[in-house]
Specification:
The protein is of the alpha/beta class. It has eleven helices and 15 strands.
């Protein structure tokens, strides 16, 4: 099969398309013909060597995938050959023609492959963080970095739980955040004052998606470090006593894959795809992801 991989750490130029042996599913796994694969911040950070999950070189890339089941392993009863599914590539090799999945769900009827491939990692990450913060009906949540893939997902999931959401993004994304159900404020100087104007007593909990060095302000707004979770500022979390949410250490929330369909079909959840790229242009997709300012997700259209 064709797959993207890198043989050394570095910029997007280290990515190449190679031929690899076709994988086959083990117990509990399914293999899919990949139709689309999402690009996340984790992908380019692994490629750049900023993250290390213990894998050697060369490494494949890509976690979010959507496609059609063409082989099933022993013990699989939830899906069958021919089903449209989305999920997370078990070996981080989703940017390929074939992928193995343990965590998967049937694609909601109204979604195509590209839209489905945008969801898995953002959905799991946002759900995990909201669970850890205890976001529920009546909560007031502030999200720093609310317009990207994870932020957009967290806004809508929190609103669906009955929470009030105040979200920070660029001025260009104010209307977008309002469309998702958040009360928008603008990044930078004066952000805290904008939040205080909307919530004079502060917020119940705060989620840091952007990692822009604002944890002290979030701790103050939420009334203590125990009411703040960060997904992006590991060093700051240690300095300020804030929880750094990590699915490898905290447990995962992949149950969200099967649960989001009801919201999608009811028109209460939508994660936009900013741009699509062919597999051969994965280096450009990484370059766009790394430079930020993406509204929603980037996706490789593979088949």
């Amino acid at each position: 099969m064709k797959a993207a991989q890198f043989g050394r750490f570095g910029g997007p130029e280290v990515l190449e398309i190679v031929q690899l042996p076709d994988p086959h599913p083990g117990p509990g796994q399914v293999r899919i013909l990949v139709h689309a694969a999402g690009i996340s911040g984790t992908d380019w950070k692994l490629r750049a060597g900023e993250l290390n999950f213990g894998a050697g070189l060369p490494q494949t890339t890509g976690r979010d995938v959507a496609g059609v089941v063409d082989e099933v392993g022993d013990g699989v009863t939830d899906v069958a050959v021919g089903d449209r599914v989305f999920g997370v590539s078990d070996d981080g090799a989703g940017a390929a023609e074939l992928a193995l999945l343990t965590f998967r769900a049937v694609i909601p009827p109204s979604l195509g492959f590209v839209d489905a491939a945008a969801l898995p990692v953002a959905l799991e990450t946002a759900t995990r963080a909201l669970d850890q913060l205890g976001v529920a009906s009546g909560s007031t949540l502030f999200i720093n970095g609310a317009s990207g893939g994870i932020g957009s997902t967290a806004v809508q999931l929190a609103v669906a739980r009955g929470a009030r959401v105040i979200g920070a993004a660029s001025a260009a994304n104010r209307n977008y955040l309002a469309l998702l159900g958040a009360e928008p404020v603008v990044y930078g100087e004066g952000m805290v004052d904008q939040v205080r104007a909307r919530a004079p007593r502060g917020v119940d909990v705060a989620l840091d998606v952007a990692g822009s060095g604002v944890l002290p302000q979030l701790v103050d707004l939420a009334g203590g470090a125990g009411n703040v979770v960060t997904l992006a500022d590991f060093d700051g979390s240690k300095e300020h006593g804030v929880r750094f949410s990590n699915g490898f250490a905290d447990g995962h929330a992949f149950h969200s894959l099967a649960e989001v369909g009801e919201l999608i079909e009811a028109g209460r959840f939508w994660l936009p795809v900013d741009r699509t790229f062919p597999l051969a242009a994965i280096a450009e997709a990484h370059r766009v992801s790394e430079h930020g300012h993406v509204r929603g997700r980037l996706v490789l259209a593979i088949a």
